[in-house]
UniProtKB/TrEMBL annotation:
<dbReference type="GO" id="GO:0042597">
    <property type="term" value="C:periplasmic space"/>
</dbReference>
<dbReference type="InterPro" id="IPR023346">
    <property type="entry name" value="Lysozyme-like_dom_sf"/>
</dbReference>
<feature type="domain" description="Transglycosylase SLT">
    <location>
        <begin position="578"/>
        <end position="684"/>
    </location>
</feature>
<dbReference type="InterPro" id="IPR008939">
    <property type="entry name" value="Lytic_TGlycosylase_superhlx_U"/>
</dbReference>
<dbReference type="InterPro" id="IPR008258">
    <property type="entry name" value="Transglycosylase_SLT_dom_1"/>
</dbReference>
<comment type="similarity">
    <text>Belongs to the transglycosylase Slt family.</text>
</comment>
<dbReference type="Pfam" id="PF01464">
    <property type="entry name" value="SLT"/>
</dbReference>
<protein>
    <submittedName>
        <fullName>Transglycosylase SLT domain-containing protein</fullName>
    </submittedName>
</protein>
<keyword id="KW-0732">Signal</keyword>
<dbReference type="GO" id="GO:0004553">
    <property type="term" value="F:hydrolase activity, hydrolyzing O-glycosyl compounds"/>
</dbReference>
Length: 735
C-alpha cells in the first residue's frame, strides 16, 4: 500500500462514497456485488435559473459570442472568448480540489451542470461567468471548454478548436470535436478549414476491403477536403469511384465526397449502370437494383435496363425472351445468365453449353460466370462432384482469395490434405498468418505423414489464446496459453490514481450520473500509465460496473486482462440457473459474454434482448412449454429473468444435440433446424475442428469458436482449473 495523503483521502472519500467506489481495494458498504453502483448526488433540481451572475462586473457584456465580443475577468479587464476558454483550461488544481469540503464540491457540481446547460443553449457569457466565479480548480473545466466549442459552432472558433485538438489533453474529446467541425465545414463547403482540420492522409486505401467502416469515413473526409483544393484529384476520383461501386453500407460522412463526385461530372450514367449490374446479379440487393433501375430510366440505357428487369424474377427465361445477339441483346443475356447462375447454379450449369453456343460470351464474361458458379459449388450444401467441377473448369486467373478460402474449407471437409497444404501456401502471406490456417497447415502436414513438421507448426499455434490455439494445445498435451495479466495485489485505490486527471474527471462525471463518463473512461484505458489504468479497471470490476470493465479491455487492447475482459457478473443468478437447468456455469457465461458482453439492457437490431440475447418470440415458446407467465419483452432486461429463459433454451439445445456444446452453441446462434444440414451425411468421420471450420456462416463460425474458448476461460477464472477446451465425448463425436 502506498503512503496516504490525508488531504486527498478526504476528497476521495467523498468521491468514493458518491460513486459507490472501492477504497484501498475494499468494497464500499452498501454497494451490492455484481450490480452497477449509482450516483447519490441529486441534481434534478439544478437549472440554469439558479445562477444570477452575469459576465463579471459588467452586466452589459455581449453574449452572442463573436471573437470581437468580450467578457470581463474578475478584475473587470476585457477578455476575448478564446482567451477565456484557454484560461479555463488551466483552472484545475488537484490539491485545491482535494482540500475542499463536501458542501463546496456539491455546489461546484451544481454549478458545472448550470454552465454546461448555458453553453449548450448558446449563452456563452453566462457559461464563462459561472466557470470564473464558481469553478476555479474544478477538474471538469475542460468539458466546459468542449461544450463551448462543440455547441453553437462557428468558423471564428476554429483556432481555439485546433489548439484544443493539438494540445491532446483529452484525446477522446479531441476526436469528437474534430468530427463535429468536419461535419460543419463540409456542410458549409469550407474546404480550406476542412483540409486544415483533417490533416494528412490517414490511411493507405489501396485495398478498400481492408479498411474498416470508420477508416472509410476518415478517408472520405480527407478527399472531400482536399479535392476542391486541387491536391488529390486523381486519387479522389479513384477512391470515390470505388466507394460508389461498393454495395455495402456507405458511411454518412462520405456524402460530401459523393456530392463533389457528382458535381464534377464523374457520376456518369455508365457508372450508375455498372453499379446496377453489380447489384442485379446478387439476391440480397433487390431494393438497390429497383432503385437504380428507376434512376436509369432517364438515361440512354433505359430500354436495356427495362429489358433486364423483365428477367429479374425469372432469369432462366432469357433463352426465350432475348431475341438475337447484337450489342444490347447480348449484354442483357449475359447479365441475366449471371443472375441465373447465382440463383439456380445447378440448373444454370445444365444450360451453360446452350448459353455459350447461343450468346458467345467473351473470355472476360466467362470468367465472371465461372466465379459465380464456383462461389455456389464450393458452399457447404454441394458435394465433391461439384467441387471437382470447379477444379476442372475455373481458370487459374479466376481464383480470388475468397474462392481460395472456400476451396480450402471444402478440402478440409473432404479430408483432401494435400490440397489443404498446397492451397494455404497459395494464400497471401497475411492470410497464411491467420490462426486457423496456421492450424490447418500443421494438421495437414501431420495427416500427410510429416509429423515433425506438423507438430512444430501446431506447437506455435498452441501459443495463441484462441479456439484453434487451445485446440492445438489440447491435441499436443500442452498447457493452454491463458496469458493471464493480473493487477499488482498491492494496489491502492484511490491513492494510486490521485494525480490522474482523466480518472478524476471520470469519477466526477460518474458522480453526476453523466453518460459522457464513458469518454473519460476510454481516455484512462488508452492513455493512462499501465498501473493506473489497471487500478481503474479493478474499481469497475469490484463495483459491479461490468460494461466499464469490458470496455476497458476493448478500448485499450489489453486482451490479457482476463478478469476485466471476462467479468463474473450476476454470479448468484448464473449459479442458481446453472443448477436448475444443469447447464455448466462456464458455458452460460461463455454464451452470455459472446451474446451481449454482459450488458443486461442491450437490444439487437433483430429484437434479441439482454444478457443472453433472448428473442421475445422464443421467450413466449419457453413460457408456454414450461407453464410460466411471460411478463413481456421489457422483462427480459432483468438479469434474473433473462438468465432463466436463456439457460432453459440452452438446455433444450444441449438435450437436442447430445449434450454437445459445439452443436448447441451453433444452434443458439443460427437456429436448431440448420444443424442437421451442416452435419455429415456420407458416413465419413469428421471431428470437432473440421465441423467448426466448415460452418457455412461466417458469423456462426466465429461465434462457436468464441463461445467454446470463453467457456474454457471462464472455467479457469471460476475454478482455477485449466480443464479441457473440448470435452471427451465431443472429441470422439461424429460430426
Amino acid at each position: 500500500m502506498g503512503v496516504l495523503d490525508f488531504q486527498r483521502v478526504r476528497w476521495w472519500a467523498l468521491i468514493v462514497t458518491t460513486v459507490g467506489g472501492v477504497l484501498c481495494g475494499a468494497q464500499v458498504a452498501g454497494a451490492a456485488p455484481n450490480q452497477g453502483a449509482t450516483a447519490s448526488t441529486d441534481l434534478s433540481s439544478v437549472t440554469s435559473t439558479n445562477v444570477t451572475i452575469r459576465a463579471g462586473a459588467n452586466s452589459n457584456a455581449a453574449v452572442s459570442g463573436s471573437p470581437d465580443e468580450i467578457v470581463m475577468d474578475s478584475s473587470g479587464q476585457a477578455m476575448h472568448f478564446e482567451d477565456q476558454m484557454m484560461l479555463n483550461s488551466r483552472m484545475v488544481d488537484l490539491d485545491l480540489f482535494a482540500k475542499m469540503p463536501k458542501s463546496r464540491i456539491t455546489k461546484m457540481r451544481e454549478a458545472f451542470v448550470q454552465a454546461e446547460n448555458a453553453f449548450k443553449r448558446g449563452d456563452e457569457a453566462l457559461g464563462f461567468a459561472i466557470q470564473r466565479e464558481q469553478l476555479q480548480g474544478y477538474p471538469l473545466n475542460i468539458w466546459l471548454n468542449y461544450y463551448y466549442l462543440a455547441y453553437n459552432i462557428r468558423t471564428e472558433k476554429f483556432d481555439a478548436v485546433m489548439k484544443f485538438i493539438q494540445s491532446n489533453e483529452q484525446g477522446e474529446l479531441s476526436a469528437l470535436l474534430k468530427d463535429r467541425y468536419a461535419r460543419y465545414f463540409s456542410d458549409q463547403r469550407d474546404y480550406e478549414h476542412l483540409s486544415q482540420l483533417i490533416g494528412p492522409k490517414p490511411f493507405d486505401e489501396t485495398k478498400l476491403s481492408t479498411l474498416s467502416f470508420n477508416q472509410k469515413s476518415q478517408m472520405c473526409r480527407f478527399y472531400e477536403a482536399n479535392w476542391p483544393l486541387d491536391k488529390v484529384s486523381e486519387d479522389a476520383v479513384s477512391y470515390a469511384t470505388r466507394i460508389y461501386l461498393d454495395l455495402s453500407k456507405r458511411p454518412m460522412s462520405c456524402n460530401g465526397l459523393m456530392s463533389l463526385f457528382d458535381a464534377k461530372g464523374y457520376l456518369t450514367d455508365k457508372l450508375v449502370l455498372k453499379r446496377f449490374e453489380s447489384a442485379y446479379i446478387k439476391s440480397s440487393y433487390a431494393e438497390t437494383t429497383e432503385s437504380l433501375s428507376r434512376e436509369l430510366q432517364k438515361t440512354p440505357f433505359a430500354e436495356r435496363v427495362s429489358a433486364q428487369m423483365k428477367l429479374y424474377k425469372d432469369p432462366e427465361k432469357l433463352f426465350t425472351e432475348v431475341k438475337g445477339n447484337d450489342g444490347e441483346q447480348h449484354r442483357v443475356a449475359v447479365l441475366a445468365f449471371k443472375r441465373y447462375a447465382n440463383l439456380q447454379p445447378r440448373a444454370a450449369r445444365n444450360d451453360f453449353s446452350r448459353f455459350i453456343k447461343t450468346f458467345e460470351p467473351s473470355e472476360t464474361e466467362l470468367i465472371d460466370i465461372y466465379q459465380i458458379f464456383a462461389s455456389s459449388f464450393l458452399g457447404r450444401s454441394y458435394g465433391l462432384e461439384d467441387v471437382e467441377w470447379v477444379d476442372k473448369n475455373l481458370p487459374t486467373l479466376a481464383w480470388n482469395n475468397t474462392l481460395k478460402e472456400q476451396r480450402l474449407r471444402r478440402a478440409i471437409f473432404f479430408g483432401q490434405w494435400n490440397e489443404v497444404y498446397v492451397l494455404i501456401n497459395h494464400l497471401p502471406l497475411d492470410m497464411q498468418d491467420d490462426i486457423n490456417w496456421r492450424y490447418w497447415k500443421g494438421r495437414a502436414a501431420k495427416e500427410l505423414g510429416n509429423t515433425e513438421e506438423g507438430d512444430a507448426l501446431l506447437a506455435e499455434v498452441a501459443k495463441d489464446r484462441s479456439f484453434f490455439g487451445f485446440y492445438a494445445a489440447q491435441s499436443l498435451g500442452l498447457e493452454y496459453p491463458f496469458n493471464y495479466l493480473k493487477i499488482d495485489p498491492n494496489f491502492s485505490f484511490p491513492m494510486d490514481i490521485a494525480n490522474n486527471k482523466a480518472a478524476i474527471r471520470f469519477l466526477e462525471l460518474y458522480a453526476l450520473d453523466d453518460d459522457n463518463a464513458i469518454y473519460e473512461w476510454r481516455e484512462i484505458a488508452k492513455r493512462s500509465p499501465e498501473h493506473e489504468a489497471m487500478v481503474m479497471a479493478q474499481w469497475a470490476l469490484q463495483t459491479g460496473n461490468i460494461s466499464y470493465a469490458i470496455d476497458f479491455v476493448v478500448s485499450s487492447g489489453r486482451w490479457d486482462a482476463l478478469d476485466y475482459r471476462f467479468p463474473i457478473a450476476y454470479r448468484d443468478y448464473y449459479e442458481h440457473f446453472s443448477k436448475e437447468t444443469n447447464v455448466p456455469l462456464s458455458f452460460l457465461y461463455g454464451v452470455s459474454r459472446q451474446e451481449s458482453m454482459l450488458n443486461h439492457s442491450i437490444r439487437s437490431w433483430a429484437g434479441a434482448v439482454g444478457l443472453m440475447q433472448v428473442m421475445p418470440g422464443t421467450a413466449r415458446q419457453i413460457a408456454k412449454k414450461e407453464k410460466w407467465k411471460f411478463g413481456g419483452t421489457n422483462t427480459l432486461t432483468d438479469p434474473e429473468t433473462n438468465i432463466k429463459y436463456g439457460s432453459t433454451y440452452l438446455r433444450w439445445m444441449l438435450d437436442r444435440f447430445d449434450n454437445n456444446r459445439i452443436l448447441a452453441a451453433a444452434a443458439y446462434n443460427a437456429g436448431p433446424n440448420r444443424i442437421p444440414r451442416w452435419r455429415s451425411h456420407d458416413g465419413v468421420y469428421r471431428d470437432a475442428a473440421m465441423f467448426v471450420e466448415c460452418i457455412p456462416f461466417n458469423e456462426t463460425r466465429k461465434y462457436v469458436q468464441n463461445v467454446i474458448l470463453y467457456d474454457s476461460i471462464y472455467n479457469f477464472l471460476l475454478t482455477g482449473e485449466k480443464g479441457e477446451l473440448i470435452h471427451p465425448h465431443e472429441l470422439s463425436y461424429a460430426y
